[in-house]
UniProtKB/TrEMBL annotation:
Residue span, Amino acid transporter transmembrane domain: 51-428
UniProt KW Nuclease keyword: no
Compositionally biased intervals (Basic and acidic residues): 7-17
Signal sequence segment: none
Protein localization: Membrane
Name used for this protein in its record: Amino acid transporter
InterPro entries noted in UniProt: AA_transpt_TM
Biased amino acid composition, Polar residues: 18-27
Keywords: Membrane, Transmembrane, Transmembrane helix
Membrane-crossing segments per the record: 112-134, 140-159, 171-193, 221-245, 257-279, 342-360, 372-392, 407-433
Topology of the protein relative to the lipid bilayer: Multi-pass membrane protein
Amino acid sequence: MAVAEQPPKHQQEDKSETGFQSSQQPTSHDVVFGEITEDGPNYRNLGLVGTVVLMMKTQIGLGVLAIPTTFDTLGIVPGSNYVIGTFKLNHPEVYSIDGVGSLLFGAIGRRILAVIFCLYWIFVVGSGILSISIGLNAVSSHGACTAVFTVIAAIIGCACSSVRTLEKITWFAWIGLPSILTAVIIVCIAVGLQSKPAAAPTTPTPWTSDYQITTPHSSSFTAAITAVSNLVFAFSGTPGFFAIVSEMRQPRQYTRALLIAQGSVTAVYIAVGCVVYYFCGSYVASPALGSGGLLIKQVCYGIAMPGLVVTTTICSHIPAKFILINLLRGTPHLTANTPTHWLTWLSCTVSVSIIAFVIANTIPVFDALVSLIGALLGTLMCFQPMGCMWLFDNWNKSRGWVWKLKVAWAGFVVILGCFLTVSGTYGCVVQIIDSYRTGERRVAFSCADNSGTA
């Protein structure tokens, strides 16, 4: 395998900040990965365009399918990743959020954030497996037991995620991103052309959408905070950005990639969420691809299937790579094609997939699972650490009024994250318990069709 392209001379001289040294020899050194040679995987070969696609695909996939139901609870109106790039340049030895915990809070902080990081991504993989099973049920008209479909989804995700570098995974993302975007565009067109949503009751009078701009249906606190958790989940690809920037050839291009990716993701979320909710109102489906009726649902899931598989692939790869690096960091096995390397790597991907499979079958309802992930784990990854990272790097800088405003904002982000973690988790748990009590939810490890609108 070829080594990373040689950066321009001025970038070679700036190696202390990027953590990546290049030379004319077929060997390069990275602060995280160690020696990168032609005899093993090149972990530092991700370009700008590939970075943008990966950033977008970590978010557009599962998150976009939950946005319209969020609007149904919150209304349309209520519907800081920059610090990751700067923090990585200042601390090139940091590979993931656990490294942040080590710098900020020592060994205890490292362990806590490492556990939360792994749990977050494995739960996201579980939601990806669940979404694939929903798609297979929809396309096949429930052609097999749902538990069988989750097994198939877990095996596919495990196999694809075993590709060892994000640069190679990018080729999957090039297929998955257009497929999911095409599917959501089709469902937007379909709900705009249909006379009423598929789930709406039959009435003698023409159906009118019951969408509302703010606080629809007198939403309870638990319903509202659960919907906010869906929004957190939709944008919670942030924890994966550390892994992405760590494999970039030129980490200084991170901010440019971030602006392109996040601008595009936000535009897609707003457009899809508003259109589908406007035409479907309270009869919007979750996932949103089921909002256009049976035929459209089958077509959309058929087209979106590569995108759902790629989302599961990326989200499986990130925690598996995290575990691999923590097990083999500092040894030659990390970047060499040795039996120890392959055994460890495949053990990581298989373990992640098995645990995610259990999660997908234990919480077999899409909206409940993504809400719980966003509340309990997404906030702990996307709010509190980001505020603390900025404070860590900027506390001793010139303390003018601009600095004070930024400190206040960083503190607000930390406090908001704590509030959302506690209140969001409470709201999600209450709703899950109530839904099981009233018989609205499917039981764990069920063979029942999960491709309905609930």
